[in-house]
Amino acid sequence: MKRTLSRLTSSTAIALALVAGAAHATQAPSDELAFTVPPGYTQQNGDGVVLMLDDVPFEQLFHSLRPVGWQSDGGQALTSALQGTWRFTAGGAGMHQLTFTVDGRYERDLASTAQVGVSQRTSSTVTGGAFTLRDGELTLTPEHRPQSPDRYYVRVYEELSSIGWKPSAVLFDSRSQPPNIVQYYRVQP
Predict the structure, then answer these.
(1) Structural domains in the chain (count)
(2) 98, 86 contact by CB (below 8 A)
(3) What is each CA distance from 9 to 3, 12, 15, 56, 79, in whole angstroms?
(4) Residue range 56-97, pLDDT digits in tens
(5) First CA to last CA distance, the chain
(6) What does each C-alpha distance from 19 to 41, 47, 101, 120, 182 come to in angstroms?
(7) Residue 95 sits in a domain of what CATH number?
(8) Is there a single domain that holds both residue 133 and residue 44?
(9) Residues 176 and 97 in one domain
């Protein structure tokens, strides 16, 4: 069964469609992009399945797109957009912060707070290393374990919030089970 997600087309004139089955995207002969939704995916409205920007199927679709005629700048624009500090906050329990510098280095800060009765414990750790970007994939190579780098698909965009547009970055780990998505917000200096 095939349902149209949107009749709106982008500048590349690709319409999105949903097909029941395993997740992947294909280019149909009629310039229609068929995207397969994983079994059991239930987020629906009256017109079909709704994909949110932080859903795994959307990330799989986004990172599979290869628009005809598009030429990469070798990751220069994405690297430039990624530079700076990004933070994910897990309520009052924890924080994960990534800082990317122009020289290809990164710093990862983790902090957590746990409270039991009247006792509270706060812990933090800082690690760092080198980062590279290639074809939308961010590789973090920590100094303490260079033989085992972390790999994520990354995208940087502006998100509309109640206070205006906010720079956002998403790291998508497609290798974890289940796939993991973490959204960060830029920390303004």
Answers:
(1) 2
(2) yes
(3) 15, 7, 5, 22, 28
(4) 777 777 777 777 887 878 788 899 999 999 999 987 778 899
(5) 50
(6) 11, 13, 41, 49, 26
(7) 2.40.128.300
(8) no
(9) yes
The helix (run of H) or strand (run of E) holding residue 150 is: strand 150-161
Confirm whether 59 is domain-assigned: no
145 and 138 Cβ atoms separated by less than 8 Å? no
Q: What are phi and psi of 61, to 5 degrees?
A: -65, -50
Range of the domain at 148: 76-186
Residue 179 lies in a domain: yes
pLDDT digits (tens, 9 = 90+) for 116-146: 888 888 888 889 999 999 888 999 999 999 9
Q: Rounded to 5, what percent of the chain is helix, strand, coil? A: 10, 55, 40
At 111 the three-state DSSP class reads: strand
Residue 57 lies inside a defined structural domain of this protein: no
Is there a single domain that holds both residue 81 and residue 172? yes
**pTM (2 d.p.):** 0.70
Q: Is there a single domain that holds both residue 114 and residue 168?
A: yes
**Residue that has been written with the tokens 């149909």 in this structure:** 28
pLDDT band at 168 (very low <50, low <70, confident <90, very high): very high
Residues 161 and 86 placed together within one structural domain of the fold: yes
Burial class from Cβ neighbours inside 10 Å (0-12, 13-18, 19+) for residue 146 reads exposed
